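ok so dumb question maybe but i'm new to this and my supervisor (M.) told me to 'just get the structure for M28 family peptidase' and walked off. so i did the thing. is this what she meant?? sequence i used:
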Amino acid sequence: MRNILFLTFLLLTSNLQAQDEEVILKYFHSITSEEVFGYAKTLAGPEYDGRLAGSPGYTKAAEYVAEHLKEWGIQPGYNSSYFKHYPLDYTTVNSVGSLTALLIDSKGNTIAKSYSFPEHYYPGSNSGNGEVSGDLVYVGYGITAPEHQYDDYKGIDVKNKIVMLESGHPKPENAKDWDDWAAYAGSSEKMNNAIQHGAKGVLFISKIASPGITYNKDIIYCHIDDKVAEEFFFARHLSLEKVRKVLKEKNKPQSIELKHNITLSADTKHHPDGSYANIIGIIPGSDPLLKDEVIMVGAHLDGQGNLGELFPGALDNASGVADIMAAARALSNLPAPKRTIAFFFIGAEEKGLLGALEYAKDPLFNKDKTICYINLDMVGNGNGLYFGGGQSFPGIYKHFEAANEQYIHRTMKTNYLNRSYKGRPRTDGMALSQHGFRALSVHCTDRVKKLYYHHPADTPETLVPEIMEDVSKWLYLGLYSLANAESIDLNEVIKPE
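this is what came out, is it supposed to look like this??
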């Protein structure tokens, strides 16, 4: 039975000979859960300090990956170097800071409250340093958009006050996609708008580590849990739920002076002279006619850093990096494939997909010769596989489908690419897709353990080593099969209406 399955697999890699079975299966079985989990555990460790792009911790992580690529004989992508460097500022958060409030009810009674990290708030990744106090004003989305006749600050004085704002943006009929609001709805744009209106502190109602907000020394901010925001409304005998409902359904500002006195402190130091790198290693193709065709597989290496407490970033995204590393190590032992295989470890995803966008502007490989880019993000917790975009490119997908059916035996789902999507890209794969690359993505389905997204509890203990092993083995077989195909049908299948 094993021989029948292997010969079926060889039909997709027709240049291989039956005698290659032993070496392919040898290195297939050499990939273990202990190996893959080991890479992820190391990258999530305190030595790398959360792998914040721009920081020394990220640089150490990049060197760790490159050292392994070199050890395995995988060639540098950038001539003699694995790295392409870019300048990037970053902020050190020395402690979790503090958030306190003097709540005032509708009758003038007061109560002092002190909030705790990480239950109630996260400090701002790029907050200014110091302490501010001021009255609290809820400003809805925090947007001023003249061409949409929309202003959350209209009729509200926030000078020297603390503003509390929501993520997202209004969605009236004339705003059919993100592009209508892109100049206003990003967190950095909302921060700048608060500063322009005179606010000295910001509470984002979104408790998430977010290193992509642009640094400004003149404002201190943090991210708060919904329950904290609800408490601020409840103390005034108001309902945040009702205010939000009107805000979303009417698409009209619902700003309110809540009048509680908020004190917010941050202990930060900004570093304007940091840098990060994209890392590329390659296994060159051997076929004179096909070696310039490239199959890329990648994952973002950076994390959320350290906000006074380590954010290990084990699932997001040490898992994706580790899956690729194990597959790369195994592939490096096989006869050279026809096409080039490139392993892409991307920087500054958490800062706004910067590494992917830099690559899109100046790609190492000709876009027309890039067969596909396969993106792995948070691939380490689940029972099944999801190959995003596979139905749009069946000529690519069939290699990975066959590898799963014949060797991995996991439930695998796929879909069509959403070409009508106009929103802000959320992954490196989406960013590259919007710049014309044939980008697909890999995720896990059927989560096994609790998910901690951008959270200090995203530790190696939340990973499932068995799925990581299978993802690596599946990549190993699928990439090698695709790289050795006599021909690849790249005609895109558009999603049926």
